[in-house]
Amino acid sequence: MKKVLVPVMEWLPAIGIVVTILVGWEIFVRVWNIADWLLPAPSAIGYTLYDSWGLLAGHTLVTLEEVVLGFGLALVSGMLLASAITLSKTIEKALYPFVIASQTVPIIVIAPMLLVWIGYGLTPKIIVVALISFFPIVVNTVDGMRSVDSDMQKMMRTMGGNRWSIFLKVQLPVSMPYLFSGLRVAIAVSVIGAVIGEWVGSSEGLGYLMIRSKPQFQTERVFAAIAILSVMGIALFALIGLLERLLIPWWHREREGRPRIS
Amino acid sequence: MDSKRESNLKEKIIEVVNVSRRIGQGSGYVDVLANVDFYARRGEVVSVIGPSGCGKSTFLDILAGLERPDSGTVTVQGLHTENLLGSVGYMQQKDLLLPWRTVMNNVILGLEMQGISKKIARRQATERMDSFGLSGFEDEYPYALSGGMRQRAAFLRTILTDTSVLLLDEPFSALDALNRSHMQEWLLNLLESYDEKTVVLVTHDVEEALFLSDRIYVMSPRPGRIVVAEKIVWDLPRSRNLLSTQQFTETKSRILSYLLSSETVL
Ligand SMILES: Nc1ncnc2c1ncn2[C@@H]1O[C@H](COP(=O)(O)OP(=O)(O)OP(=O)(O)O)[C@@H](O)[C@H]1O
Ligand SMILES: [Mg+2]
Predict the structure, then answer these.
(1) On the CB side of A82, how many CA atoms lie within 13 Å of its CA?
(2) Looking at the predicted complex, does its ipTM rise above 0.95?
């Protein structure tokens, strides 16, 4: 019982704020009689979610696919690049400046170019998502790999460890908590990346639906899409947290750090 | 048996001649070690005792092949500085257990690095878990262990690599007094069962050095020099009782006076 209650209690303040805002919003719209196309009431948005669920679900799946594939691409390429940067000074000097520079070019500029080069379809969206989420992954993982205690490296060397075994047995595991911090940031921006990719040019996805609904004054549909995007972001964020607890359980215990045995 | 041990005593497993070490470049350097001469014979337990910051850990780093001396020669089992890494067991001041590995997977790390299969490594570790007071805790993560247990796990990890030279850097400095004296007795018993191993024990605790070792080197404050080397022979067998004998207290105050006089030199 307690186990179930604790997370609920933890979320209570956030839930409270959301409920307060929704209720205030509803009252505001009803009292001032605001037109639906200007600002739909939460109840109207809720009704749209229910009524157009088939349409919304189809576009949601498209966006989700872009997010997951782009994020996956960023994860794999980000970890490979972080490893290469850690293992080779030459690669670090050659590539790290570009990793940083890549973030100074606004994604909103790159996205239309990708459209020109690659065309419509899934691929340019995956690339936009990967481009936007790859940076926090690389930077955090490199920091993590570098954070290894020099005494720990010494210990590995006295046991016959070389650069590669130190990397695999120490640097890689040490970097995991850092990687997960990077992934949390990355997943949040991934969703934004997918929507931007769709805005620039697409025929499906929640971003596309928003762009198309607005001129038709279907504002409640725009808000419904926003609601779904938020839920998607929060759910993916929570999923990363769950994976973290499963894959690196030692990290939380280490931080909570209370010896149980003496 | 005894005569064999006598003849073995003649062989110098570790020999350090006139070693100096300066750390840092340009004007920001520090002389850490100056003209250190040192040796240890097969099967000996030799302590190096000196004030904090005098270069004891640096000395062990040099014996392990982690650092090169700027001058002088180091020979350990016939190997020189360049080839030492991987052939000397070194337990550093911190336990350095890997937090993501269980106790079992931590202690077999060295064997794993030697390319021994996990199965065989685990079997070897299991045989010794008990004498290291770790049985039952094989699957625990380091965070759950007490300081003493962490030290023993780090020690077991070093022992399992089965090198004939062991370097121990203040193995008990992180423990409270009671735990420390338990661990000292435990180590004494353990070392008696490994009488072929040559052990260099670094400490700043005179009693610990006297209790555990066959010979003691006293180092001066930085730059570390050897002030005196003394052979320790007790009339009584080593046990807690020894600590209250007159011979022990006299030796202790003599070593302390060497330490203190070296301190006032600077
Ligand atoms: N990389 C380094 N750069 C600068 N100074 C260093 C470095 N390594 C060691 N020193 C200095 O060299 C001296 C000796 O260090 P070392 O760790 O060998 O001493 P120690 O006798 O083991 O000390 P402790 O008893 O505190 O463990 C210290 O004063 C330290 O500040
Ligand atoms: Mg030290």
Answers:
(1) 27
(2) no
